[in-house]
Amino acid sequence: MKRLALMGLGLAAILAAGVGGYWAGVRGLPLTGLTKWFYVEATLAASKPLGTGAAIYYQDPDGKPAYSAIPRQTADGRAFRAVRASEDVTFEDKLPTPAEPAGQTGTQRILYYRNPMGLPDTSPVPKKDSMGMDYIPVYEGEDDGSSVVQVSLGKLQRTGVRSELVKRRTVGRLVRVPGTIQLDERRVSVVATRSDAFVNEVANVTTGDRVTKGQILVRLYSPDIAAAGALFLSDLNSGGRDSAIGGARQRLENLGVPPEAIAEIERTRKVPLSITWRAPRDGVVLERNVVEGMKVAPGDVLFRLTDISTVWVLADVPEFDLAAVRIGAPVTIRIRSLPGRTFEGRVSLIYPQVSEATRATRVRIEIANPSGVLLSNMYAEVEIGTGNAVPVVAVPDSAVIDTGTRQVVIIDRGEGRFEPRDVKIGLRGEGFTEIREGIAEGDRVVVAANFLIDAESNLKAALRDLTPPEARP
């Protein structure tokens, strides 16, 4: 009841002031203070046509920038005003109040009006060009020669401009490239002779079989080895000088006789008819080129073995991704023929050339293969991790405007003011871009609708260049 009584008294005071103001205006009496304000409001309300059509939305009864899609009330219980379809609605500026002279909106004062097409023509009062387009008002602070752009709050709401604080983040991404499994070149061995020989016996091993170090592979008879063995045995039996015995032993070693065969001659004091050749390492037989009874020449490869406990993955990285790949980078490998399994490794070598045909560089990754499931020439899907583990200043990718020759971000200075800023970018990844120069941690950058602000800034700069100083009021 007390609130209703106060509202009634207020309404009576308003009506009395309005009537007094009206009669004062009619009789030529001066209007001051509250009387003048109500007189202007009443005149504006009387001159404004009533809206027709359906209610589009609802606005604060005091004209504040508060809107609602459904009927709503203010905190003090007053209903929002329905805005009809026929009413001319604007979110840009508000009507001047009695406390503000014409040509002034809020705290900004209109300096002059510029040609909407960018021509060097200005006017101190509103006007239209030859095509009927309204001249654009230039507010105080907009034409100060700086790169700061002023955007009205209504336009910001309609265009969906959003900004975020600049933070330090770990920027990285995955370089996904194809690759193939290859044998480790350092783990391949061959079994060969250094003299003419005849094959007496071949072990029961074939291509693809696994062998262990020291396992017997082949027995050979070589006339050269037999002659060197006889000389070595003669020096041993005659008690010759150490130099003579050492020379005979060296000859056997030069012919590639295994140390255990020389030790057997020294122990048994006999030259064997055939020399046994054993596997030099654990591994898989890649080649078997001997059969019993055949003659082999010096250098002929009898067996080729490889250790597959560690294999290589050779991946082709495109040239434009090469700068992001570094030695020691973590790698995840997936094999199409082994679904559900992943293998981990690290980049061990970046080859020093780019393929002319593919414009890609080969990268080598070493991975363990203890179970032997990774086979040579298997196809692999390679994911190489890039970036630095140290957090850097980074912004969302959408905040960077890349023109090809320069990169720009829009700094949000608050209250509708924005400033384009040239930056130098670094790595990109996971939706973020490293900023190496131009902004600092704690700045606020525009991440949505920044192209509109950039266009506004470019238009402002272009118009400033086109309009000579003498043409500005």
Automatic annotation (TrEMBL):
One of its GO terms (cellular component) is membrane. One of its GO terms (molecular function) is transmembrane transporter activity. Residues 393-453 form the CzcB-like C-terminal circularly permuted SH3-like domain. Keywords: Ion transport, Signal, Transport. Residues 188-305 form the CusB-like barrel-sandwich hybrid domain. The keyword Protein transport does not apply. Belongs to the membrane fusion protein (MFP) (TC 8.A.1) family. This is Membrane fusion protein CusB. The lineage of its organism: Bacteria, Pseudomonadati, Pseudomonadota, Alphaproteobacteria, Hyphomicrobiales.
